[in-house]
């Protein structure tokens, strides 16, 4: 740093200016503001804790106005050219017990109606705090059930007992938790014998990881089914697992960092070595497990 031309001090030609106050736009400005903000809180006796005391919050805002040139504008209405409107999540359900009873009955119905698994799984997530919107969703499911009373799994006798599995996942479907919902369907001789639709317990960082978890659950179910058929002395063809994600299909070669995913890799690798694992070119819209 040098003194600007035309403003060089003849007595101190090698001296430069010292910044006594953080200016807006400099790299030091956030640090200077944080230090001043922290020292102000510490002077009031605050520590790193959580709380929702409204009276203390009002006192703190009053001290803010005396310390800093700020004012409370109330609720946010405009921000960076965006207009903000506040809405509620829906009125609480008038009869939560009835909501739980209906959802429980629908869960029992999914034993013979796999097409309801995803919708019932979704409304089952709000048993503790259901709203009128959730109750309307349950009514829509009941309307669908009433119009499809004749629907259900059909079992036919095939020429061969081939075991075929489909797995798919809806990546980061949940808006609140960003957890994925996976599903699989397993057919024995062309007949649907096992299916599932559940929300994954952790938040995946990529669609590949989410698909791989779904494949591991489907592979574990296929392995259990083959062991059951073996114990019953029923001959069958080698099981096949279909997925629609090329990254997940080739991911056994990837070294994941967590033990949980390493276990999933071992399950998929074991299934691939014993049976048949393939990447289906079917679109997700036509994949049965979707």
Automatic annotation (TrEMBL):
InterPro entries: DNA/RNA_pol_sf, RVT_2. This is Uncharacterized protein LOC106756917. PANTHER family: GAG-POL-RELATED RETROTRANSPOSON, RLK (RECEPTOR-LIKE PROTEIN KINASE) 8, PUTATIVE-RELATED. Residues 1-46 form the Reverse transcriptase Ty1/copia-type domain. Keywords: Membrane, Transmembrane, Transmembrane helix. Pfam families: RVT_2. The chain crosses the membrane at residues 31-48, 256-277.
């Amino acid at each position: 740093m040098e003194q600007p031309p035309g403003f060089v001090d003849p007595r101190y030609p090698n001296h430069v200016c010292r910044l006594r106050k953080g200016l807006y736009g400099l790299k030091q400005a956030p640090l200077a503001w944080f230090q001043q903000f922290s020292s102000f809180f510490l002077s009031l006796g605050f520590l790193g804790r959580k709380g929702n005391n409204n009276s203390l919050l009002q006192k703190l805002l009053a001290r803010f106005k005396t310390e800093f040139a700020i004012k409370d504008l109330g609720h946010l209405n405009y921000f960076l050219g965006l207009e903000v409107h506040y809405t509620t999540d829906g009125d609480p359900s008038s009869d939560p017990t009835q909501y739980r009873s209906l959802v429980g009955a629908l869960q029992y119905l999914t034993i013979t109606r796999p097409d309801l698994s995803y919708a019932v799984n979704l409304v089952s997530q709000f048993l503790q705090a259901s709203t009128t919107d959730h109750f309307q969703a349950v009514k829509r499911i009941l309307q669908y059930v009433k119009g499809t009373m004749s629907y259900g799994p059909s079992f036919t006798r095939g020429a061969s007992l081939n075991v075929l599995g489909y797995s798919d996942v809806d990546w980061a479907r949940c808006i609140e938790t960003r957890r994925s919902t996976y599903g699989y369907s397993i057919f024995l001789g062309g007949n649907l014998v096992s299916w599932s639709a559940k929300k994954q317990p952790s938040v995946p960082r990529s669609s590949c990881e989410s698909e791989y978890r779904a494949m591991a659950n489907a592979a574990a179910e296929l392995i259990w089914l083959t062991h059951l058929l073996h114990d019953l002395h029923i001959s069958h063809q080698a099981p096949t697992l279909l997925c629609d994600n090329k990254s997940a299909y080739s991911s056994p070669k990837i070294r994941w960092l967590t033990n949980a995913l390493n276990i999933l890799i071992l399950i998929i690798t074991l299934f691939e070595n014993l049976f048949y694992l393939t990447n289906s070119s079917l679109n997700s819209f036509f994949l049965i497990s979707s």
